[in-house]
Amino acid sequence: MLSTREVPHPDEVRPLTRAAKDLPADAIVLSLRMLQLAEDLQRAYATHLLGRFGISAGRLSVLLLIERGDRSRPRAADLARRAGVSRPTMTRLLDGLARDGLVVRRADPDDGRARRIELTAAGRHLLQDIEPAHARRLVALTRLLSVEDRRHLDRLIERLRAGLGALTGA
After folding, report:
1. Exposed, middle or buried by CB within 10 Å (0-12, 13-18, 19+), for 16?
2. How many Å apart are CA 15 and CA 37, to the nearest integer?
3. Given this structure, which CATH class describes domain 55-168?
4. Going by C-beta distance under 8 Å and a sequence separation of 6 or more, which residues neighbour residue 95?
5. 91, 82 contact by CB (below 8 A)
6. Consecutive 10-residue runs of the chain (170 residues): their mean pLDDT?
7. Least packed by Cβ within 10 Å: which of 13, 29, 55, 153?
8. Cα(first)–Cα(last) distance of the chain, in Å?
9. What pTM was computed for the model?
10. Domain boundaries, the chain
């Protein structure tokens, strides 16, 4: 019943909240709608990137992390931590990016066992192609909101982020 694919009406949720009178049905429905929006945003983002540029959202995320840390030439472990993924997941992503000629691994001068990750010219070129189109898509997402609406939504998002611990049990 508490699905993000078919968000229930508050009246449908009320029987669940009767036992715990402090659970407002509208808050449950709103939370489900936000989760639904997050899923829809991720799906639309992934579809756009794959269809237009032939790259997954995960791989683009890694390229952008490398670009931001390019002067420091990050290690795979640093990238995994910053991306919030496991080291094996990051290794697989980097293997694919290296195979496609978008990144290169170089020996770390301070630690012979470690490798530093750099964008190749092809990786930089891909980001230069993607970033303007990506920025236009992001702006289009909020085109129906006024400047005031966007500022208000930004404040609300920050307040919602403060409550994320409730989902993780923190």
Report:
1. middle
2. 25
3. mainly alpha
4. none
5. no
6. 64 65 78 88 90 91 86 86 93 96 90 88 94 89 94 93 80
7. 153
8. 25
9. 0.75
10. 1-54, 55-168
